[in-house]
Amino acid sequence: MFRSFLSFAALTVMAAPAFAQDSVPAALATTAPPLCTDRPTKSNFACTVPQGMVQLETDLGNWTRTDAGDTRVDTILYTNPTLKYGLTGSTDIEASIAPYATVRTRTAEGAQTLHGVGDLTLRLKQRLTNPAGQVQIALLPFVKIPTAKTGIGNGETEGGFAVPINIALPNGFTLTFGPEGDVLADSDGHGHHAQLVGTANLGKAVTSRFTLIGEFWVARNFDPAGHVTQTSADVAASYLLRPTLQLDLGANFGLNQTTPDAQVYLGVSTRF
User: For residue 69, what pLDDT is reported?
Assistant: First the structure.
């Protein structure tokens, strides 16, 4: 089953992330549609990159802290770019990788630090709905290729399938849902298991350029070694400097012991 899924995801990507900015008023419009991104937050947006155009969405910095007993792990991503290309008016292909990451683990016995490149993720986004519609839906298959060394990544090929759903509401609000199913490697390295993920995200366009976002995220992992549930409460903001340039920042807070305690990031997105 897992090999069939990966074959489908890889072939789909070769054949062809978070919340996005709402529609920009006519005063900011250009000949091309205004910038629409999967940043910030963990939700994705149903919009795709215009045909023939390239879009870059990246963390400028990303820090995550995880505490478990007397062990503390700090993970820092020094940029984390996602590069997108519009294949058609409703389809784009995407590739993301952290070119340099640091993972520092501290225990009562001492500390260990690992440095290196992250894993490569390939995605295809297919929008199913009219871009002018109140409800937007897309299909988003992806596959993770293990390019990171052990300790930064798990050395396993994994994948998943997400369905971004965005609903425009009155007074500048946008409601986003993100059902997702993943196929992940077992912790003992001898098979794969399912993970179910869900997000509920509410954004508010405070002005034509400035948006605030609140989000709840949950993931249920069905590893045979033990089922794990993670939950977080996330907040973020984005600011559109011009129709094709957006800045964002955000923070995620773990709500139980199995979720990273805190994550803080700053990012930028542009199209050319």
Answer: 86
**Tokens 């939950």, residue located:** 231
3-state secondary structure of 21: coil
56: which residues sit within 8 A by CB, 6+ positions away?
Answer: 81, 82, 83, 84, 269, 270, 271, 272
Least confident of 36-40, 107-111, 206-210: 107-111
Distances (CA, A) of 11 to 39, 124, 158, 159, 227: 26, 10, 14, 13, 31
> Ramachandran region of residue 109, left (φ > 0), alpha (ψ -120 to 50) or beta?
alpha
Confidence of residue 31 (pLDDT cuts 50, 70, 90): low
Which pLDDT band, with edges at 50, 70 and 90, does 35 fall under? very high
Separation of first and last alpha carbons in the chain: 39
H/E element, 9: helix 2-15
pTM of the predicted structure, to 2 decimals: 0.86
Q: Is 270 helix (H, G, I), strand (E, B) or coil?
A: strand
